[in-house]
Every structure is written in C-alpha cells, then in structure tokens.
Amino acid sequence: MIFRVFKSSDGLFEWVDVQRPTPEEYQMLVETYQLHPAAVKDCLAPLHLPKIEKMGEVLFLIIRVHDQTANNTADTVQQLTNKVAIFLSNRFIITIHRAGEPFLLQLREQWQERQADSNIAEYLFNQLIDKAIETFASALETATNHLDELEKVIFIKPKDHEIIYQMYTLKRRSSVFRRILFLTHEVIGKYAKLTSRQDPFTQDLIDSIGFFSFLAEELHENVTALLNLHLALSSHRTNDIMRFLTIFSVFFMPLTFIVGVYGMNFEYMPELKMPYGYLMTWIGMSLAVSVIYLWFKHKKWL
User: Fold this and answer.
1) Residue 78 belongs to what domain range?
2) Are 196 and 102 members of one domain?
3) I need a labelling partner for 190 at 20 to 30 A (CA). Which of 13, 49, 60, 122 fits?
4) At what angle do helices 161-194 and 120-156 cross, to 10 degrees?
5) Residues 85 and 43: beta-carbon distance below 8 Å
6) Residue 233, pLDDT above cutoff 90
C-alpha cells in the first residue's frame, strides 16, 4: 500500500490518499476514521459503477476515471476506466485507488499552494471531480477523430472487415463513456442536493460533466449512425448483385426454353426439317432477348 497524508495549515483538515490497499489495510482505515464497513465492501468491488451514499457525517462516493494506459481494443468498463473511492467529511477526504492516477499527482502539487485556504475541503473535492472528468477529454477527442477517419474509409474500402470491427469496438467504447459520464452527472447532482450546495463552483462542475456526457452521447449516436450506414451500403451492394443475377437469368429463360423444346428427340418436328429452321431459331432467340432488353429499359431496371 502507498499511504499519503496531507494536512491543512491549521491541522483541522487532512487528505489521505491511499493506493492499492489490502483488505486488512481497509480495515485499518475503517477503525481510524470510523468509516462504514459497507463502504469498504464497495471499495473492494473492482467493477462498481459511480454512486454516492451518505453514511452518517461522511459522504461516500465512487467515481471512475479514464485509464490512460488502455489500448485501442479496450471496450469494457474495467478495461477503459479505473475506480476511485472517496470518503468526504468536514475533517478529512480519503481517496482510494489501485492505479497511479496522474490527475491525483497534479492535485498533490496544488495542495502545497492551497493548504492554508479556509475552504480547502470544498476546493479539493471540486478539483478532484473536475480533473477526474477531464481524463475523458482526450479519450473522447481520440474516439471522435477515429470516427472521422472511419467515415472516410467506409466508402473507399466498403468490404474491409477490419473497419466493421473497429466501428463495433468504437461503439462499445462510446457506450462505456456515455454510461460512466451519465452516472457521474447523477452522482454530482445528488451530491449538490445532499450538501445543499448551490455555489458557482458546484454548478460549474455539474455543467462540465453535462458537457462531457453530451459529447459521449453524440459520439455514440454518430457511431451508431455510421454502423447503420455501413449496413445500408452492404444491403445495397447485395441488392445490386441480386438484381444483376436476376436480369442475367431472365435473359436466358426464353433461350433455355427454345433450346429445350428443339432439343427433344421427337421424330415428327416439322421445324427441324425446314431449310431455314436453324436461322429462324436464332432469329427467334435474338428477338426474345431484344424484347426483354427493351422492356427492362422501359422499366428503368437497366
């Protein structure tokens, strides 16, 4: 476990940042800061989604931040995000996480400048949530740029199965972003109600999360629309092929009929004895094909 404690200048407030604690170390935190055991159980669940609960004088929150090390094929909540548990009271704020989050390093650097502020608790919490949400900014931008590239390629390489896989992965990623940001927006909205906070900083925080949630929703809708477009193009190409095969077979239907009739081995077939029977057969077949062709052109099927 990596355990860091930062105290305010007056000693009345402290920030405890804990990384990769064991169950035994969780229990130590419970006993030291009188945390609710049920919250510890939630901390141990790796797939817990954003939530907020009031446990006595302590607010317990779970948020998820974008994992900057996630690869291009990651498309699940666990692969794309990391969980951060937060305990908030008038005396302390405790952050618990397994991965080393860069935004927490930035906050630790800012702490040295703001530790003397009287509203250090509010400032730290607002900055914590704000920077956690900002971790999705680069991910959403990258996903949007990737979508733009796929929009160009889909018309150039419509049969490339790799494009379909990339679109499907992008859709799943956008779905994860949308879900996490939507839940986080609800969490902070509930936080504002529980604490009766209507200050501009909290409202800006809600607006910021709402903006990123909107971007994730827009990305998801655009990916879905692109997938539907690809399916429509594939269906159109299939219809073109079927139309070509149908037209091809229709042209040969009368020819097959004529050849089949005169290919029968009946002894008495007057046409077979005619001097120009062979020529007339060819003229008849050519005429049948011409009529079909003119009819198709009239119907604008060709």
Assistant:
1) 2-235
2) yes
3) 13
4) 160
5) yes
6) no
Question: What residues pair up with 95 in beta bridges, in sequence order?
Answer: 17, 86
Average of per-residue pLDDT across 117-132: 83
Q: At what angle do helices 102-114 and 120-156 cross, to 10 degrees?
A: 150
**Residue 49: inside a domain:** yes
Which of 235, 250, 276 is the last residue before a domain boundary?
A: 235
Phi, psi of 14, deg, nearest 5: -140, 150
- pLDDT at position 231, please? 81
11-25: average pLDDT:
83
Task: Provide the pLDDT for residue 118.
Answer: 63
User: What Cα–Cα distance (Å) separates residue 120 from each residue in 6, 10, 132, 143, 222?
Assistant: 12, 11, 18, 35, 41
Q: 3-state DSSP call for residue 272?
A: helix
Q: Are residues 194 and 294 both part of a single domain?
A: no
Residue pair 296/246 in contact (Cβ under 8 Å)? The answer is no
CA distance 122 to 145: 36
pTM across the whole model = 0.77
